[in-house]
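Honest question from a wet-lab person: if I give you the sequences of every part of a complex, can you actually get the arrangement of the whole thing, not just the pieces? Trying it with mine:
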Amino acid sequence: MATGTVQVRFFARYAELAGCETTALSVAVPATVADVVRRVREAIPGAALLPERPLAAINMRHVKLDAPVGDGDEVAFLPPVAGG
Amino acid sequence: MAYLTRESILVSSLLAEVAAPHCGGTCLFLGTVRDAPDDGGVTGIEYSAYEAMAIAELDRMLAEARKRWPEVRVAVRHRLGLVPTEEASIGIAAAAPHRAAAFEACRYVIEEVKQRLPIWKKELRADGTALWVDPEGRPAVVGPEGTP
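Yes, you can. This is the full assembly:
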């Protein structure tokens, strides 16, 4: 199985939990957002506190957890949004 | 048009952006930071964003509004950084030939902002503490219990 690298970004409370705003992670591709969540939760100690089903975006578009993730994609994990 | 700003929101500039000879109705919405005296008192809110995505989302929202109400002109400004109580954190102006479309388009944009815009707020309390706020307006518990 091939391996790809995704750029993971955390924001607001999730960045505080993860202890970083961005990190590069290698994942087995093809992968889904849910796979990336699992990788993040096991690879980054503080990120174990992230929800199992966080709001996510790929390349700045909201996506569901079954959305496919490819090599080079940016995957952002977004706390519940509170704009306005 | 710059959607995000760290300065006070100028209503006059929002109105100027949407003014047009064919528009006879303009709707202006301002969201302001409110105190919560029963909850310890709020002195301000610190707004942060995934800025590039917020700009892209607002582009998409305004394109959707233009598709639904082709003659409506919409301007949006969202503030980032510390916004003190009583000041506006968001301003939306929508101008249309007639008032119904102006109200509808303005309402559409604020509701989409609430659902989609990647912006977060940290409430600054009178006692000096700061708490992330979840979309229902309740302070978020930091930890697994605070998950969506």
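Two things worth pointing out. The first helix of chain A runs from residue 12 to 18. The first strand of chain A starts at residue 2 and ends at 10.
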